[in-house]
Amino acid sequence: MANKGRDATVIVGGGHAAGTLLTTLIQKQWPHEVVLIGDEPHPPYQRPPLSKDYLAGKMERESLYLKPRSVYENAGHRLRLGERVEHIDRVNKTIKLSDQSSLGYDQLVLATGSRARRLNVPGADDLEGIHYLRDIADTDALRGQFVPGQRLVIVGGGYIGLEVAAIAVKGGLKVTVLEAAGRVMQRVTGPEISAFFLAKHSNAGVEVRLDTSVTGFEADGDGHVAGVAVADGRTVPADLVLVSIGITPETALAESAGLPCDEGILVDEYARSDDPAILAIGDCTRHRNLFFEQPQRMESVANAVDQARTAAATLMGNDKPYDAAPWFWSNQYDVRLQMVGLSKDHDERVVRGNPKDGAFAVFYMREGHLIAVDAVNLPIAFMVGKKLVYQRRDVDAEALSDPDIELKSLL
Protein backbone atom coordinates (compact mmCIF):
# COMPACT_ATOMS: atom_id res chain seq x y z
CA MET A 1 0.00 0.00 0.00
CA ALA A 2 1.28 3.47 -0.89
CA ASN A 3 2.51 5.70 1.89
CA LYS A 4 0.36 8.52 3.20
CA GLY A 5 0.96 12.09 4.32
CA ARG A 6 3.99 14.23 3.60
CA ASP A 7 5.50 11.60 1.27
CA ALA A 8 2.63 12.21 -1.18
CA THR A 9 3.50 13.19 -4.72
CA VAL A 10 0.87 15.56 -6.08
CA ILE A 11 0.16 15.96 -9.81
CA VAL A 12 -1.95 18.91 -10.88
CA GLY A 13 -3.65 18.27 -14.22
CA GLY A 14 -5.69 15.67 -16.08
CA GLY A 15 -4.25 15.51 -19.59
CA HIS A 16 -1.77 13.32 -21.42
CA ALA A 17 1.24 14.53 -19.45
CA ALA A 18 -0.37 13.95 -16.05
CA GLY A 19 -1.77 10.56 -17.01
CA THR A 20 1.49 9.35 -18.54
CA LEU A 21 3.44 10.42 -15.46
CA LEU A 22 1.14 8.59 -13.08
CA THR A 23 1.09 5.47 -15.26
CA THR A 24 4.88 5.50 -15.48
CA LEU A 25 5.24 5.83 -11.72
CA ILE A 26 2.91 2.85 -11.28
CA GLN A 27 4.98 0.81 -13.73
CA LYS A 28 8.17 1.75 -11.87
CA GLN A 29 6.55 0.87 -8.54
CA TRP A 30 6.91 4.34 -7.08
CA PRO A 31 6.74 3.71 -3.30
CA HIS A 32 4.80 6.84 -2.34
CA GLU A 33 1.18 7.77 -2.68
CA VAL A 34 0.32 9.90 -5.70
CA VAL A 35 -2.63 12.28 -5.64
CA LEU A 36 -3.76 13.53 -9.04
CA ILE A 37 -5.97 16.62 -9.00
CA GLY A 38 -7.94 17.51 -12.13
CA ASP A 39 -10.55 20.21 -12.58
CA GLU A 40 -12.59 18.08 -14.99
CA PRO A 41 -14.76 15.14 -13.87
CA HIS A 42 -12.79 12.72 -16.05
CA PRO A 43 -9.64 10.69 -15.39
CA PRO A 44 -6.63 11.68 -17.53
CA TYR A 45 -7.53 11.53 -21.22
CA GLN A 46 -6.14 12.14 -24.68
CA ARG A 47 -7.15 15.35 -26.43
CA PRO A 48 -6.30 14.84 -30.14
CA PRO A 49 -9.47 12.79 -30.83
CA LEU A 50 -11.60 15.70 -29.60
CA SER A 51 -11.31 17.30 -33.03
CA LYS A 52 -11.20 13.99 -34.89
CA ASP A 53 -12.94 10.66 -34.15
CA TYR A 54 -14.67 11.74 -30.94
CA LEU A 55 -16.18 14.77 -32.65
CA ALA A 56 -17.25 12.56 -35.56
CA GLY A 57 -19.02 10.17 -33.18
CA LYS A 58 -16.67 7.30 -34.05
CA MET A 59 -15.22 7.05 -30.56
CA GLU A 60 -16.87 6.59 -27.17
CA ARG A 61 -15.95 8.87 -24.30
CA GLU A 62 -14.43 6.04 -22.25
CA SER A 63 -12.05 5.32 -25.13
CA LEU A 64 -10.50 8.75 -24.60
CA TYR A 65 -9.31 7.79 -21.13
CA LEU A 66 -5.65 6.80 -20.94
CA LYS A 67 -6.54 4.25 -18.25
CA PRO A 68 -9.74 3.45 -16.35
CA ARG A 69 -9.92 5.23 -13.02
CA SER A 70 -9.69 1.88 -11.25
CA VAL A 71 -6.16 1.25 -12.55
CA TYR A 72 -4.81 4.24 -10.63
CA GLU A 73 -6.82 3.59 -7.50
CA ASN A 74 -6.06 -0.14 -7.38
CA ALA A 75 -2.39 0.80 -7.34
CA GLY A 76 -2.99 2.80 -4.15
CA HIS A 77 -3.23 6.28 -5.63
CA ARG A 78 -5.97 8.88 -5.47
CA LEU A 79 -7.76 10.88 -8.14
CA ARG A 80 -9.44 14.05 -6.93
CA LEU A 81 -11.50 15.03 -9.96
CA GLY A 82 -13.67 18.06 -10.46
CA GLU A 83 -11.42 20.03 -8.10
CA ARG A 84 -9.09 22.94 -8.74
CA VAL A 85 -5.85 23.94 -7.05
CA GLU A 86 -6.09 27.61 -6.10
CA HIS A 87 -2.84 28.28 -4.26
CA ILE A 88 0.62 26.80 -3.69
CA ASP A 89 2.38 27.47 -0.39
CA ARG A 90 5.97 26.64 -1.28
CA VAL A 91 7.30 27.37 2.22
CA ASN A 92 5.05 24.86 3.95
CA LYS A 93 4.72 22.55 0.93
CA THR A 94 0.96 22.64 0.86
CA ILE A 95 -1.68 23.40 -1.74
CA LYS A 96 -5.15 24.85 -1.23
CA LEU A 97 -8.02 23.42 -3.25
CA SER A 98 -11.29 24.87 -4.48
CA ASP A 99 -13.21 23.06 -1.73
CA GLN A 100 -11.03 24.99 0.77
CA SER A 101 -9.19 21.84 1.87
CA SER A 102 -5.39 21.70 2.03
CA LEU A 103 -3.01 18.96 1.00
CA GLY A 104 0.66 18.53 1.81
CA TYR A 105 3.19 17.38 -0.76
CA ASP A 106 6.73 16.16 -0.86
CA GLN A 107 6.99 16.57 -4.63
CA LEU A 108 4.60 18.63 -6.74
CA VAL A 109 4.24 18.26 -10.51
CA LEU A 110 2.39 20.91 -12.49
CA ALA A 111 0.76 19.51 -15.64
CA THR A 112 -1.78 22.30 -15.99
CA GLY A 113 -1.80 22.26 -19.78
CA SER A 114 -3.21 25.13 -21.77
CA ARG A 115 -6.43 26.92 -22.60
CA ALA A 116 -7.89 28.03 -25.91
CA ARG A 117 -6.83 31.54 -26.90
CA ARG A 118 -9.85 33.84 -26.85
CA LEU A 119 -10.79 36.15 -29.70
CA ASN A 120 -11.04 39.70 -28.39
CA VAL A 121 -13.57 41.34 -30.71
CA PRO A 122 -17.10 42.73 -30.15
CA GLY A 123 -19.64 40.00 -29.43
CA ALA A 124 -17.07 37.26 -28.78
CA ASP A 125 -18.00 36.86 -25.12
CA ASP A 126 -21.68 37.75 -25.31
CA LEU A 127 -23.36 35.60 -27.96
CA GLU A 128 -24.64 32.05 -27.95
CA GLY A 129 -23.32 29.72 -30.62
CA ILE A 130 -19.63 30.72 -30.40
CA HIS A 131 -17.50 27.71 -29.46
CA TYR A 132 -13.94 26.91 -28.49
CA LEU A 133 -12.53 23.39 -28.48
CA ARG A 134 -10.19 22.31 -25.71
CA ASP A 135 -11.90 19.65 -23.59
CA ILE A 136 -14.58 16.96 -23.66
CA ALA A 137 -17.35 19.37 -22.70
CA ASP A 138 -16.36 21.68 -25.59
CA THR A 139 -16.57 18.86 -28.11
CA ASP A 140 -19.89 17.62 -26.73
CA ALA A 141 -21.35 21.11 -27.03
CA LEU A 142 -20.07 21.60 -30.58
CA ARG A 143 -21.15 18.17 -31.78
CA GLY A 144 -24.63 18.82 -30.45
CA GLN A 145 -24.92 21.72 -32.92
CA PHE A 146 -23.81 19.71 -35.96
CA VAL A 147 -27.01 19.62 -38.00
CA PRO A 148 -26.93 19.17 -41.79
CA GLY A 149 -27.47 22.46 -43.56
CA GLN A 150 -26.20 24.58 -40.65
CA ARG A 151 -23.67 27.26 -41.53
CA LEU A 152 -20.46 26.73 -39.55
CA VAL A 153 -17.79 29.43 -39.64
CA ILE A 154 -14.37 28.42 -38.33
CA VAL A 155 -12.02 31.21 -37.32
CA GLY A 156 -8.51 29.86 -37.81
CA GLY A 157 -6.98 27.53 -40.40
CA GLY A 158 -4.65 25.51 -38.18
CA TYR A 159 -4.74 21.81 -37.28
CA ILE A 160 -7.86 21.85 -35.14
CA GLY A 161 -9.85 24.22 -37.34
CA LEU A 162 -9.19 22.16 -40.46
CA GLU A 163 -9.84 18.84 -38.72
CA VAL A 164 -13.21 20.12 -37.55
CA ALA A 165 -13.94 21.49 -41.04
CA ALA A 166 -13.33 18.05 -42.57
CA ILE A 167 -15.73 16.36 -40.16
CA ALA A 168 -18.38 19.07 -40.43
CA VAL A 169 -18.53 19.20 -44.22
CA LYS A 170 -18.78 15.39 -44.38
CA GLY A 171 -21.68 15.73 -41.95
CA GLY A 172 -23.57 18.00 -44.31
CA LEU A 173 -22.78 21.39 -42.77
CA LYS A 174 -21.91 24.41 -44.87
CA VAL A 175 -18.40 25.29 -43.74
CA THR A 176 -16.39 28.49 -44.14
CA VAL A 177 -12.85 28.82 -42.77
CA LEU A 178 -11.49 32.32 -42.11
CA GLU A 179 -7.70 32.46 -41.89
CA ALA A 180 -5.85 35.71 -41.13
CA ALA A 181 -2.58 34.49 -42.69
CA GLY A 182 -1.80 34.01 -46.35
CA ARG A 183 -2.08 30.22 -46.21
CA VAL A 184 -3.52 27.51 -43.97
CA MET A 185 -1.27 25.99 -41.28
CA GLN A 186 1.26 28.69 -42.09
CA ARG A 187 2.79 28.66 -38.60
CA VAL A 188 3.73 24.99 -38.68
CA THR A 189 4.37 23.91 -42.26
CA GLY A 190 5.65 24.93 -45.68
CA PRO A 191 3.74 26.22 -48.70
CA GLU A 192 3.53 22.85 -50.48
CA ILE A 193 1.66 21.27 -47.58
CA SER A 194 -0.55 24.34 -47.19
CA ALA A 195 -1.47 24.29 -50.87
CA PHE A 196 -2.29 20.58 -50.74
CA PHE A 197 -4.68 20.95 -47.80
CA LEU A 198 -6.26 24.09 -49.23
CA ALA A 199 -7.11 22.16 -52.39
CA LYS A 200 -8.32 19.17 -50.37
CA HIS A 201 -10.76 21.27 -48.36
CA SER A 202 -11.90 23.33 -51.34
CA ASN A 203 -12.64 20.19 -53.35
CA ALA A 204 -14.67 18.83 -50.43
CA GLY A 205 -16.88 21.92 -50.43
CA VAL A 206 -15.26 24.00 -47.68
CA GLU A 207 -14.93 27.69 -48.47
CA VAL A 208 -11.53 28.90 -47.28
CA ARG A 209 -10.86 32.63 -47.13
CA LEU A 210 -7.23 33.61 -46.62
CA ASP A 211 -5.88 36.98 -45.47
CA THR A 212 -9.18 37.49 -43.68
CA SER A 213 -9.25 39.03 -40.20
CA VAL A 214 -12.32 38.88 -37.97
CA THR A 215 -13.46 42.19 -36.49
CA GLY A 216 -16.59 41.12 -34.61
CA PHE A 217 -19.74 39.02 -34.44
CA GLU A 218 -23.30 39.96 -35.33
CA ALA A 219 -26.33 38.70 -33.41
CA ASP A 220 -29.89 37.76 -34.22
CA GLY A 221 -32.77 38.99 -32.08
CA ASP A 222 -32.30 36.23 -29.51
CA GLY A 223 -28.67 36.85 -28.60
CA HIS A 224 -27.36 34.09 -30.85
CA VAL A 225 -24.56 34.57 -33.35
CA ALA A 226 -25.81 35.25 -36.86
CA GLY A 227 -22.71 36.41 -38.68
CA VAL A 228 -18.97 37.04 -38.54
CA ALA A 229 -17.77 40.51 -39.49
CA VAL A 230 -14.44 40.66 -41.33
CA ALA A 231 -11.96 43.44 -42.01
CA ASP A 232 -13.13 44.21 -45.55
CA GLY A 233 -16.53 45.24 -44.20
CA ARG A 234 -18.44 42.14 -45.23
CA THR A 235 -20.29 39.71 -42.97
CA VAL A 236 -20.14 35.94 -43.29
CA PRO A 237 -23.52 34.39 -42.27
CA ALA A 238 -23.21 31.87 -39.45
CA ASP A 239 -25.47 29.59 -37.42
CA LEU A 240 -22.54 28.56 -35.25
CA VAL A 241 -18.88 29.51 -34.94
CA LEU A 242 -15.73 27.72 -33.83
CA VAL A 243 -12.83 29.94 -32.81
CA SER A 244 -9.56 28.03 -33.20
CA ILE A 245 -6.67 30.50 -33.04
CA GLY A 246 -4.19 28.66 -30.84
CA ILE A 247 -3.64 28.05 -27.16
CA THR A 248 -2.20 29.84 -24.15
CA PRO A 249 -0.19 27.94 -21.51
CA GLU A 250 -1.83 27.69 -18.08
CA THR A 251 0.76 29.39 -15.89
CA ALA A 252 -1.38 31.41 -13.47
CA LEU A 253 -0.95 28.96 -10.59
CA ALA A 254 2.81 28.84 -11.06
CA GLU A 255 3.09 32.60 -11.42
CA SER A 256 1.12 33.24 -8.24
CA ALA A 257 3.54 30.90 -6.44
CA GLY A 258 6.48 32.94 -7.68
CA LEU A 259 7.86 30.37 -10.10
CA PRO A 260 9.68 31.86 -13.12
CA CYS A 261 7.50 31.85 -16.25
CA ASP A 262 8.06 33.11 -19.78
CA GLU A 263 5.23 32.00 -22.08
CA GLY A 264 5.31 28.80 -20.04
CA ILE A 265 6.67 27.57 -16.71
CA LEU A 266 10.44 27.52 -17.05
CA VAL A 267 11.96 24.09 -16.43
CA ASP A 268 15.30 22.46 -17.18
CA GLU A 269 16.05 19.31 -19.16
CA TYR A 270 15.00 17.23 -16.14
CA ALA A 271 11.55 18.92 -15.92
CA ARG A 272 12.59 20.77 -12.74
CA SER A 273 11.53 24.32 -11.93
CA ASP A 274 13.77 26.54 -9.83
CA ASP A 275 12.04 25.08 -6.76
CA PRO A 276 13.60 21.64 -6.12
CA ALA A 277 10.24 20.30 -4.89
CA ILE A 278 8.28 21.36 -8.01
CA LEU A 279 8.42 19.92 -11.52
CA ALA A 280 6.35 20.91 -14.55
CA ILE A 281 5.53 19.03 -17.75
CA GLY A 282 3.50 19.35 -20.94
CA ASP A 283 1.90 22.29 -22.74
CA CYS A 284 2.30 24.56 -19.73
CA THR A 285 6.10 24.56 -19.88
CA ARG A 286 8.89 26.33 -21.68
CA HIS A 287 11.51 23.67 -21.31
CA ARG A 288 15.02 22.64 -22.09
CA ASN A 289 15.21 19.85 -24.64
CA LEU A 290 18.80 18.95 -25.48
CA PHE A 291 17.72 18.47 -29.10
CA PHE A 292 17.41 22.28 -29.34
CA GLU A 293 19.82 25.08 -28.53
CA GLN A 294 17.16 27.26 -26.91
CA PRO A 295 14.25 26.53 -24.53
CA GLN A 296 11.05 25.63 -26.36
CA ARG A 297 7.33 25.54 -25.73
CA MET A 298 5.74 22.60 -27.50
CA GLU A 299 2.07 21.77 -28.14
CA SER A 300 2.07 18.06 -28.82
CA VAL A 301 1.26 14.68 -27.34
CA ALA A 302 4.82 13.51 -28.02
CA ASN A 303 6.20 16.33 -25.88
CA ALA A 304 3.71 15.62 -23.08
CA VAL A 305 4.67 11.93 -23.05
CA ASP A 306 8.42 12.48 -23.29
CA GLN A 307 8.45 15.15 -20.59
CA ALA A 308 6.32 12.96 -18.33
CA ARG A 309 8.83 10.12 -18.64
CA THR A 310 11.66 12.52 -17.94
CA ALA A 311 9.84 13.75 -14.83
CA ALA A 312 9.28 10.17 -13.66
CA ALA A 313 13.00 9.49 -13.95
CA THR A 314 13.77 12.68 -12.03
CA LEU A 315 11.39 11.74 -9.22
CA MET A 316 12.95 8.27 -9.04
CA GLY A 317 16.43 9.78 -8.75
CA ASN A 318 17.50 8.45 -12.14
CA ASP A 319 18.07 11.76 -13.90
CA LYS A 320 17.58 11.33 -17.64
CA PRO A 321 17.68 14.56 -19.65
CA TYR A 322 14.96 15.32 -22.16
CA ASP A 323 16.46 14.84 -25.61
CA ALA A 324 13.93 14.11 -28.35
CA ALA A 325 12.97 15.34 -31.80
CA PRO A 326 9.39 16.67 -31.66
CA TRP A 327 6.73 15.09 -33.83
CA PHE A 328 3.09 15.80 -34.65
CA TRP A 329 0.22 14.46 -36.73
CA SER A 330 -3.12 15.48 -38.20
CA ASN A 331 -5.94 13.47 -39.80
CA GLN A 332 -8.15 15.24 -42.35
CA TYR A 333 -10.45 13.31 -44.72
CA ASP A 334 -8.40 10.36 -46.02
CA VAL A 335 -5.13 12.15 -45.36
CA ARG A 336 -2.68 11.45 -42.57
CA LEU A 337 -0.10 14.19 -42.13
CA GLN A 338 2.94 13.20 -40.04
CA MET A 339 5.54 15.77 -39.10
CA VAL A 340 8.86 15.64 -37.30
CA GLY A 341 11.19 18.50 -36.34
CA LEU A 342 10.59 22.22 -36.69
CA SER A 343 10.78 23.63 -40.20
CA LYS A 344 10.67 27.36 -39.49
CA ASP A 345 14.41 28.04 -39.96
CA HIS A 346 14.95 26.00 -43.13
CA ASP A 347 16.89 27.36 -46.10
CA GLU A 348 15.95 24.64 -48.62
CA ARG A 349 12.91 22.43 -49.27
CA VAL A 350 13.00 19.13 -51.12
CA VAL A 351 9.79 17.47 -52.34
CA ARG A 352 9.58 13.72 -52.82
CA GLY A 353 6.59 12.44 -54.77
CA ASN A 354 3.77 14.34 -56.41
CA PRO A 355 1.08 16.09 -54.33
CA LYS A 356 -1.42 15.32 -57.10
CA ASP A 357 -1.00 11.63 -56.31
CA GLY A 358 -2.04 12.22 -52.70
CA ALA A 359 1.19 10.83 -51.20
CA PHE A 360 4.34 12.93 -50.92
CA ALA A 361 6.81 14.39 -48.45
CA VAL A 362 8.58 17.70 -47.96
CA PHE A 363 12.06 17.64 -46.45
CA TYR A 364 13.33 20.83 -44.83
CA MET A 365 17.08 21.47 -44.90
CA ARG A 366 19.37 23.93 -43.18
CA GLU A 367 23.00 24.21 -44.19
CA GLY A 368 22.87 20.76 -45.76
CA HIS A 369 21.34 18.77 -42.92
CA LEU A 370 17.77 17.69 -42.40
CA ILE A 371 15.82 19.58 -39.72
CA ALA A 372 12.20 18.57 -40.41
CA VAL A 373 9.94 16.36 -42.53
CA ASP A 374 6.25 16.68 -43.41
CA ALA A 375 4.86 13.43 -44.82
CA VAL A 376 1.41 13.14 -46.44
CA ASN A 377 0.20 9.53 -46.62
CA LEU A 378 3.85 8.48 -46.81
CA PRO A 379 4.74 6.83 -43.48
CA ILE A 380 8.15 5.59 -44.67
CA ALA A 381 9.24 9.20 -45.19
CA PHE A 382 8.17 10.03 -41.66
CA MET A 383 9.84 7.00 -40.08
CA VAL A 384 13.15 7.48 -41.90
CA GLY A 385 12.96 11.24 -41.53
CA LYS A 386 12.45 10.94 -37.79
CA LYS A 387 15.77 9.13 -37.44
CA LEU A 388 17.61 11.46 -39.78
CA VAL A 389 16.30 14.56 -38.04
CA TYR A 390 17.21 13.24 -34.60
CA GLN A 391 20.72 12.34 -35.82
CA ARG A 392 21.10 15.79 -37.40
CA ARG A 393 22.37 14.08 -40.51
CA ASP A 394 23.74 15.76 -43.60
CA VAL A 395 21.63 14.38 -46.44
CA ASP A 396 21.96 14.69 -50.20
CA ALA A 397 18.97 16.67 -51.49
CA GLU A 398 18.90 14.85 -54.82
CA ALA A 399 18.77 11.49 -53.07
CA LEU A 400 15.80 12.67 -51.00
CA SER A 401 13.85 13.68 -54.10
CA ASP A 402 14.75 10.66 -56.26
CA PRO A 403 11.96 8.02 -56.03
CA ASP A 404 14.38 5.37 -57.33
CA ILE A 405 16.54 5.69 -54.22
CA GLU A 406 15.07 3.93 -51.20
CA LEU A 407 14.81 6.26 -48.23
CA LYS A 408 16.03 3.52 -45.87
CA SER A 409 19.33 3.50 -47.71
CA LEU A 410 19.98 7.03 -46.44
CA LEU A 411 20.21 5.73 -42.88
What topology does this entry show?
Elements: E1 9-12, H1 16-27, E2 34-38, H2 69-74, E3 78-81, E4 85-89, E5 94-97, E6 102-104, E7 107-110, E8 114-116, E9 130-131, H3 136-143, E10 151-155, H4 159-170, E11 174-178, H5 191-204, E12 207-209, E13 214-219, E14 225-230, E15 235-237, E16 240-243, E17 247-249, H6 252-256, E18 265-267, E19 278-280, E20 285-287, H7 301-315, E21 327-332, E22 335-341, E23 348-354, E24 359-366, E25 369-376, H8 379-390, H9 397-401
Parallel strand pairs: 1-2, 1-7, 2-3, 7-19, 9-16, 10-11, 10-16, 11-12, 18-20
Antiparallel strand pairs: 4-5, 5-6, 8-17, 13-14, 14-15, 21-22, 22-25, 23-24, 24-25
Helix pairs in contact: 1-7
Describe the structure.
With 411 residues, the chain is α/β, with parallel strands linked by helices. The chain has three domains: 179 residues, 3-Layer(bba) Sandwich (FAD/NAD(P)-binding domain), CATH 3.50.50; 116 residues, 3-Layer(bba) Sandwich (FAD/NAD(P)-binding domain), CATH 3.50.50.60; 77 residues, 2-Layer Sandwich (Enolase-like, domain 1), CATH 3.30.390. The chain contains nine helices and 25 strands. A five-stranded parallel β-sheet has the order 3-2-1-7-19. A five-stranded parallel β-sheet has the order 9-16-10-11-12. Helix 1 runs parallel beside helix 7. The chain is globular. The N terminus is likely disordered.
